[in-house]
Amino acid sequence: MDNCKLEDELTINNKTIWEKADEKLKGDIYQYCEGYKSFLNSCKTERESTKFILSEAEKKGFISLDEIMEKHIKLTPGRKVYYNNKDKSVVLAVIGSQPMEKGMNIVAAHIDSPRLDLKPVPVYEEAGLALFNTHYYGGIKKYQWVTIPLAIHGVIIKNDGQKINVCIGENEDDPVLYISDLLPHLGKDQMEKKAEEVITGEGLDILVGSIPYSDKDAKMKAKLNILNILKEKYDITEEDFISSELEVVPAFRARDIGLDRSMIGAYGQDDRVSAYTTLTAVLGLENPQTTCLAVFADKEEVGSMGNTGLQSRFMVNTVAELLAAEGCEEDIYVRRAMANSRLLSADVSAGYDPLYPDAYDKTNTPLMGNGIPITKYTGSKGKGGSNDASAEFVGKIRSIFNNAGVVWQTGELGKVDVGGGGTIAQFVSAYGMDVLDCGVPLLSMHSPYEVSSKADVYMAHKAYSAFYCNA
Q1: What is the enclosing helix (H) or strand (E) of 81?
Q2: Helices 46-59 & 23-42 angle (0-180, nearest 10)
Q3: Residues 370/371/375/378 CA torsion (nearest 10 deg)
Q4: Could you tell me which residues are beta bridge partners of residue 435?
Q5: Cα–Cα distance between 163 and 154 in angstroms, integer?
Q6: Which among 59, 99, 98, 101 is positioned nearest to 82, based on CA atoms?
Q7: Which residues contact 197 (CB under 8 A, 6 or more apart)?
């Protein structure tokens, strides 16, 4: 055997998807990513993502689990069901021909992203300027959030229970919000600080106005003017902020990156790239042999806590309801179904960045455009906070992807002892199921504008589709 053939046989092929793709595949990649960009532009919060997911699911014939239970509808193979968990997380299920207790094929993504949240009493005035006080959500580099256009999304619940939807800063003729920074002429002391101290959490306050209200007796006229504008637009008072969820996000729209248009830049690709590719995969299912679930969770960026995160029981409760609809009401069936299942933790990974090579072990880091990574373990330092998938399950996923023509790679989250991070994998594996992290690599993860490869995005859709049908 000559050296070239031996190298092809024994070593990992590191060609990019673009090098392997024919013109049809390239066309499919570009077309698919147009839909993905539209999703990113319209879904910048978990509530907006939930609304989009449910709308698309209903178009494909999914009906609510509540309707299934109320009308005693039998869960026959091929039936499509959804569960809306408090408008902030979702489970979609396509019922298979095999009993659920034999296990399910599950892909789980999260639909929250790092951002700034308004504090319960956010509006104040200083030096004639009106500002919103914020508390950042998730792991961010605080200095990245200043001097960029910002939008505000969310809901306000009034005293009478009325829900007010808010979205300011996304339309071309909307005003945007803004966090100021110190000019370099006066920034000598600031520039000598550590990066994490240059901008403090309490320094992430948002500029919202400067015109004083025309009342000579008012004490804080700029603040009063902003409250009056909000009263006229939404019929709310300052107290209504206490029962609100208002999220401040970048006002940028998703755009093609690169002269070859091979990449996408957008806010919130962690982890809405996984949410979108999971959604399109599950919506394409018809009459699977194994019941398939798509889980879209909240709160991953802050530890998956709360009743919409995957440390809660909303996923297992959904499975219990589905089993009850099949006539299996004993708890043992739920336990068996969960323990016998297979789950891909669809969360993004850190793509190799040639500008910061010292942070990565290049031989074990995903490369942009080289396919969907499978990540045996995440965590930090000694694999803390990791799931660490078994060799058997990794081997099974390899086989599925290879047989389906999925271009894939492997990797870790940076060098040992440099940093690290966790996903939902550690929480769902507690049920006894096999779990593997598998998600698109990004550049500038957790920044206001993350970058993905279009080829990797499309390959994620193909990977999750293959997993549903073959695991």
Answers
A1: strand 80-85
A2: 120
A3: 70
A4: 343
A5: 10
A6: 59
A7: none
269-283 helix and 46-59 helix, angle to the nearest 10 degrees: 10
Report residue 2's pLDDT band, with 50, 70 and 90 as the boundaries.
low
The beta strands (E) that lie in 392-468 are given as 408-410, 420-421, 434-438, 441-443, 450-453
DSSP string, 366-414: --TTS-EEEES--EETTTBT-----HHHHHHHHHHHHHTT--EEE--SS
Say if residues 215 and 221 touch (Cβ distance below 8 Å).
yes
Helices 23-42 and 269-283, axial angle in degrees (round to 10): 120
The answer to whether residue 185 scores a pLDDT higher than 70 is: yes
Q: How confident is the prediction for the chain on average, in pLDDT?
A: 94
> What are 412-438's pLDDT values in tens digits?
888 888 877 789 899 999 999 999 999
Number of C-beta neighbours around residue 195 at 10 A: 10
Q: Which residues pair with 143 in a beta bridge?
A: none
pLDDT of residue 410: 92
Q: Is residue 424 within 8 Å of residue 417, measured between CB atoms?
A: no
pTM: 0.96
Encoded tokens for 285: 């299912």
Tell me 47's DSSP state: H
Looking up tokens 């006080």 gives 133
CB 106 within 8 A of CB 296: no
| pLDDT band with cut points at 50, 70 and 90 for residue 323 | very high
Alpha carbon distance 299, 422 (integer Å): 13
Beta-carbon contacts of 420 under 8 Å, excluding residues fewer than 6 positions away, are 378, 379, 380, 381, 384, 385, 413, 414
CB atoms within 10 A of CB 216: 7
Give the Cα separation of 154 and 108 in Å (integer).
24
Residue 358 has a CB neighbour count (10 Å cut-off) of 7
Give CA–CA dist 268/153, Å, rounded.
Answer: 14
Query: Which residues share a beta bridge with 372?
Result: 408
Q: Residues 423, 350: contact at Cβ < 8 Å? A: no
449 Cβ partners below 8 Å, 6+ apart? 250, 252, 265, 266, 267
Amino acid at 103: G
Paired residues of 349 in beta bridges: 441
- Which DSSP string corresponds to 219-259? SSHHHHHHHHHHHHHH---GGGGGGEEEEEEE-PPPEEEST
Dihedral sign (CA 74, 94, 45, 316):
positive
